[in-house]
Specification:
Largest interface: A-B, 31 and 32 residues
Mean pLDDT of chain A: 85
Number of strands of chain A: 0
Oligomer: heterodimer
Low-confidence stretches of chain A: none
Radius of gyration of chain B: 19 Å
Low-confidence stretches of chain B: none
Strand order of the largest sheet of chain B: 5-6-7-3-8-9
Distance between the termini of chain B: 41 Å
Strand content of chain A: under 5%
Order of helices and strands of chain B: EEEHEEHHHHEHEHEEH
Structural class of chain B: alpha/beta
Shape of chain B: globular
Shape of chain A: globular
Radius of gyration of chain A: 19 Å
Strand content of chain B: 25-35%
CATH architecture of one domain in chain B: 3-Layer(aba) Sandwich
Helix content of chain B: 25-40%
Mean pLDDT of chain B: 84
Distance between the termini of chain A: 40 Å
Structural class of chain A: mainly alpha
Largest sheet of chain B: 6 strands, mixed
Number of domains of chain A: 1
CATH topology of one domain in chain B: Rossmann fold
CATH superfamily of one domain in chain B: P-loop containing nucleotide triphosphate hydrolases
Chain lengths: 264, 240
């Protein structure tokens, strides 16, 4: 137990140092990290409260997009994680790379943790047209959202390891991944709610999108839609299994990263 | 260490295939998948409590030899016996984040090095880098290049306390003359306390001052092992 606590505290400290470094670099410092999610939140609040009074759906989508922004920021960053040659000095130190990479993912998810309560408060004032969540229901939703965010953070960490290694091997991925993620981020509100009359197309959209499960989970609690689509968990589970088996199992990622740096 | 040697290499060779980097526009096509022989039939015994220097032209195999010794590479043929308990190869002096000051960097490096219980590390960094607390409180990126080098040197060497075999690969390319003098002196004392070391450098004066014995490598083969003056003379002949 002490070991896990120490480990977690180490990862938090490293993420904190990264925050500090980022803050010192720019005039507005770390605020830039919050700007993008805050803009998204503002736009969706406007759309779903004033323009289209579909508060429930708006709440799910805004929260989902916020969590998804943590995933995109982490994966974009992961394309350049192993460009630092000095990593070689830590390669033989037990758990050093694991802590470093975990802290990088946490760094990108911290704004999400801070902004989730803001969304819950915003929905109380703006989205409550077709439903009324009480304060205690809102707190339950917030706790659940934290759990979903933690789950997404673990998922992201596991897929970031192959992302960083493959981006070093296949150079074009450094450009391709940010583009794909940006498009997916913008399309997600449509992809998440789109329904055609063709069941095959709908099933394909839910199965092929490795991030659809976020919407499914949030729908489960916020929209009380208990028809949880387990098919949306197939691809993420498969990706996690492949990433774990080929990269994380027996710390294979360490020797892969070492080779990539040494044979450069 | 039970043996009289820290490391023993028996008939070690090392070669590797160059790897293609995939991109839409392939930039490395000429050398893809070419078998490159780097070290050939190396027989070497590194004695305990000695500092070895490795010299040779660029591409002669100096860094590869160190990486083989420290288990970063596996030999293509031959055998390596490592008799040291805890070895560390230092490549480039490093920091965690140049936008943080040296004290924060030290704390981050303590986490990464699993060295959380060393209260005197800051004093050690000060001693090695010869900088004041005020200078260590300035973000590293705001310091002059020379001072940055001193910080990096201090932060990296602060973590060599518990090892008995040290490798330094082209580590000394920084600082003014006075600092280099002090750095060499510090390192000599430090290695005397630790045990043994192996160092690559293109600085003949550094090798001469720091090393007990020097290994000359040419085109992947060990040409000579002897005292520094002899080997350096031979090296000059070889390159001129």
């Amino acid at each position: 137990m002490m070991k896990i606590l120490n480990y977690t505290s180490d990862v938090f400290k490293l993420a904190n140092f990264q925050y500090k470094a980022e803050h010192r670099k720019k005039f507005f410092g770390i605020l830039w990290k919050y700007l993008n999610p805050v803009i998204f939140m503002g736009i969706y609040t406007l759309i779903f409260s004033a323009i289209q009074q579909d508060g429930n759906r708006g709440f799910v989508i805004t929260m989902g997009i916020l969590i998804f922004s943590g995933i995109t920021n982490s994966m974009n960053g992961a394309t350049e994680w192993i460009y630092n040659h000095a990593l070689i000095n830590f390669i033989t130190v037990r758990h050093a790379l694991l802590k470093l990479f975990l802290s990088k993912v946490l760094f990108n998810f911290l704004p999400v943790f801070y902004l989730l309560p803001v969304i819950v408060i915003v929905q109380l004032f703006f989205f409550n047209y077709d439903f009324k969540f009480t304060i205690s229901e809102s707190i339950k939703i917030l706790i659940f959202a934290y759990l979903v965010n933690t789950l997404c953070m673990i998922y992201t960490f596991i897929i970031c390891i192959p992302t960083t290694i493959l981006s070093k091997q296949f150079i074009d991925l450094q450009d391709l991944i940010p583009h794909v993620l940006r498009v997916t981020l913008y399309l997600s509100p449509i992809l998440w709610v789109a329904e055609s009359s063709n069941i095959y197309i709908d099933t394909f959209i839910k199965t092929a999108n490795p991030f659809y499960f976020i919407f499914d989970l949030l729908n489960f609690v916020i929209d009380k839609d208990y028809s949880l689509n387990l098919i949306s968990f197939i691809i993420p589970s498969l990706i996690m299994f492949i990433s774990y088996y080929f990269f994380l199992h027996n710390s294979k990622y360490i020797s892969k990263i070492r080779d990539l740096i040494l044979y450069e | 260490m039970n043996s009289e040697y820290s490391v023993e290499l028996e008939n070690c060779s090392f070669s590797y295939k160059t790897r293609p980097k995939f991109s839409l526009k392939r930039t490395t096509s000429i050398n893809d998948n070419v078998e490159q022989s780097v070290l050939k039939n190396i027989d070497l015994k590194l004695e305990n409590n000695k500092i070895y220097g490795v010299i040779g032209k660029n591409g002669s195999g100096k860094s590869t030899l160190l990486r083989l010794i420290f288990d970063y590479y596996q030999p293509s043929s031959g055998f390596i016996r490592r008799n040291f308990n805890s070895g560390k190869l230092l490549d480039i002096p490093n920091t965690y984040q140049d936008d943080l000051n040296s004290i924060d960097n030290l704390e981050a490096l303590k986490i990464l090095e699993n060295d959380r219980n060393s209260p005197n590390k800051l004093e050690r960094v000060k001693e090695i880098s010869r900088l004041t607390t005020e200078e260590l409180q300035v973000p590293i990126s705001h310091l002059s290049k020379g001072t940055q080098s001193k910080v990096r040197f201090g932060l990296t060497l602060a973590f060599i306390e518990n090892i008995d075999f040290l490798g330094l690969d082209e580590f000394f390319n920084f600082g003014d003359l006075e600092f280099q003098e002090n750095a060499v002196e510090f390192l000599k004392n430090e290695i005397d306390n630790l045990g043994s070391a192996i160092i690559t450098s293109h600085s003949n004066s550094l090798i001469e001052r720091l090393c007990d014995l020097v290994i000359l490598i040419h085109e992947g083969e060990v040409v000579e092992i002897d005292e520094s003056s002899e080997v350096l003379r031979k090296y000059k002949k070889l390159i001129l």
